[in-house]
Amino acid sequence: MSDMFLTASSSPHVRSKEDVSIIMRDVVIALLPAFICSIYFFGMKALTLTLVAVLVAVGTEALIQKLMKKPITINDWSAVVTGVLLAFNLPAGAPWWIALIGSVFAIAIVKHAFGGIGQNFMNPALAARAFLLASWPTRMTAAAFTWPGGADAVATATPLELLKGAEGVVGELPSIASLFMGNVAGTIGETSALALIIGGAYLLYRKVITWRIPTIYIGTVAVLTFIFGQDGLFTGNVLYHLFAGGLMLGAFYMATDYSSSPVTPRGQIIYALGCGIITSAIRLWGGYPEGVSYSILLMNVAAPLIDKYTMPKIYGEVKANA
Q: Who's near 142: CB < 8 A, 6+ residues apart?
């Protein structure tokens, strides 16, 4: 008689050693190159905004969980990730209280009002950015963008504003090398495409994210912005659209949010295509030079519907009308 015993238990039967804290810690590690670049280019302003956003995000999470008599889970690093991502979406010229209000909104309204981690239907940092942009547009846009290393009072247009030729915006486009390294105006965490790509590669290596969303999202923007260029078909400045603005930050770190993106492979492809199409449409024909935040938020809302129609059929399932 065999010595093997069979144990009957409820699902899940396949377990992984990875948990939320390990995944979130990997995301924080992946964001470190961009964080270092933000301090290098924008100095203490970037450090101050990031510290305020992280501390307020963690504090708000702890306070809400204590008030609701839930286990305090600030050691899972998720609030830290939200704080860092929110700070990365702020211009260096933004005041500290913008980071404070944004962090409270992200954690209290977008995350915990819908049930906490895993229940939020939008990326908290992006939703907070949209809220701040609607509430204090001057402090979140052109007037607050400072040139890296420049004087505190100097505000300048971002590369996407220059590329689009927005009304009242004049200036010379920075070189592709400056754009790739991050020596350009923009929010503190989005300027260095190189640092964001290094962090994204780390997330792919650690299998925290899959290739589908970032690759298809970035690829869609590349194709569409090249086809529909400012000077006619197939004249677009692809490298500018790829390295400028928040495309790399959004594609690797925010569109891939587990809670607000589809879980099925086909759903992730559709979702990423939608992000790329909306981003390109806003940048090419919209009144706003950037489009990453709103494209991801709109596709976040569509994610449950995408999952519904791309979920694989259960083997052996009988149709209701059979």
A: 155, 157, 158, 161, 169
